[in-house]
Amino acid sequence: MSHTFHIPVLGLGYSIDTPLRVARYGISSVVSIVDDDLTERMRELISEVHKEPYQLIKKNEPNCRALRITAYLNLLDKLVTEQVNAMKFQSFEDDGDLCKYFKLLPKKDKLSIEYQNMLKIPDGCKKSRVQANLKGKVMPGKISVNIMSKVDKANFKNGVYLGDDNTDALAALRGFAESTINGSVVISAGLNPKLFSYIASFKVFNPLSTGRFYKSIVLKVSDYRSALIQAKVLAKKGLWVSEFRIESGLNCGGHAFATEGFLLGPILQEFKDKRAELYAELYQLYQQGLLATDAIVKCPLKLVQKVTVQGGIGTAEEHEFLMEYYQLDAAGWGSPFLLVPEATSVDQQTLKDLTEAVESDYYLSDASPLGVRFNNFKNNSADKLRLERIERGRPGSPCTKKYLCNNTEFTAQPICTASREYQHLKLKQLNALALPQEELDKKIASVTEKLCLCEGLCASAYQVNNILKPKENKGVSICPGPNLAYFNNKYTLKEMIDHIYGRLNLLQGVSRPNLFIKEFDLYVDYLKQEIFANIHEKTAQIEGWKEKLSEINGKKAKYFERFCGQLNSGLNYYKELFLTADPALSMWNSEQLQKLEQVSRTLHSFYPVEISAG
Questions:
Q1: In the prediction, which pLDDT does 549 show?
Q2: What is the pLDDT of the chain when averaged over all its residues?
Q3: Mean pLDDT of 42-66
Q4: What Rg value do the Cα atoms of the chain yield, rounded?
Q5: Which among 71, 151, 130, 9 has a CA at the least distance from the CA of 457?
Q6: For residues 397 and 394, what is the distance between their CA atoms, to the nearest angstrom?
Q7: What sign does the dihedral 78-81-83-89 (CA atoms) show?
Q8: Residue 342 burial by CB count (10 A; 0-12/13-18/19+): exposed, middle or buried?
Q9: Rounded Cα gap, residues 294 and 292, in angstroms
Q10: Pairing mode of beta strands 362-365, 374-377
Q11: Do residues 221 and 244 make contact, with C-beta atoms less than 8 angstroms apart?
């Protein structure tokens, strides 16, 4: 692809129709396929708008989840193909989508240079031939899908288990595999052996003779070790990882999978240093794995394997530095596109709130029913609705979609911890324990903090497209990364892409730490919160509380020491990087180095390196 960025998945609904908005310009994006109700309703809407035939796939039909997802992806694929074909009939003189396609490309791209040269050619046969050649090179961006591997609810009908093939993740995978799109499945949230084995049953993941794939596998990972472990499992099954998509543990949107203090810079360095070694080891395992299957294709001599990064990137300098210094293939820009109505589905009120937000409005919460820390935005309407329900003595949400049901504390079949059913049962249990009031209040707050993400992360898309049903939940949940705090306006697609490629600076005059320092700061704050959670609350407020660290049990204390040790290692890496990186590529300056030192002092002020592991 000509573009050096992609738009990652944004919640459930924010990027649900992004391919239809941007793919014709060669921009790749990712659609969530967690919610098949959302895909079905969007398919009905889009079919009506584009005069496409539509027949409802009912929820009670056999295999409905996979069928709904396949039908929606096929519709996107068909319409994007039609958009691109229509562009090829446009004239370069009309300054329409065809010209926009080339104008959005990075200036160094070969296709962009060819376009600029074409404009200088006098009218005539030669110019017509060059224009025809350019039109032949127009390619849509890839349509990819995201599956959170651990969001894999078992499904029942009349109390009877529908089988492993019909769990949520496997059915979604089948929906993608049987669709016409030739993008990637982006697997996040770790290893699911059942899902990994199921992928191998689809021949569409076998290699083409060119070394590419009709449908490919992308692993979203937080460090090198997890990437290697997961990729080896897949390779042994005859499955090739075409891309490792490295995501910052904390400086990202959505669920935040914090590493044990491993920072993005050192992680990228490890991938850079071991990339050839990684490829060689996986290629050998893949050859053997492919031979062990019934695949009739041979393993090509050379396979494509990309390495990309996402999470907290905010300037053209950062984008270029990451691409050049770490020799990456692309970078993901997610949260900033929430402020681009041409690209994403964000309702007007939420959009207004985001443009007016400050740094303190973005925080790491325990709102997710999955039990994983979740990037949240203060004053979102879903949270206001949650608080209203608590005030009415009716905490919890009606659980209508049940995608995040994973708790069996009180029931035989899993229920969601954000549901009214679970919170009623849990609060009843807590009130019967005769706990001290302070402790009881704390536990109650922890229970009632959980949000219904199934509805909240779709509500905005429903509102934007005017398909919200009567009495349907209007509360909007949104989960941007903290990097969005530095962007404070609505932007056009052209403005955001020009910003990515350095043709425009949307952050002119904004004081902002670079992405490495911001992530470092987030990890220091995370560590501090984790330590406080393991010390009696009162001791954290008095001078000399650090002595209480010795009271933390040995296993936890060792965890904190490892965490702090990795942060110190990362600090030293960044200092060395500042001194050795090519100044022409570096995003560092003396001001950024001072910010790094400031975060370092904060770390050592509350966690002495010499503390005993107990």
A1: 60
A2: 91
A3: 96
A4: 25
A5: 9
A6: 9
A7: negative
A8: middle
A9: 7
A10: antiparallel
A11: yes
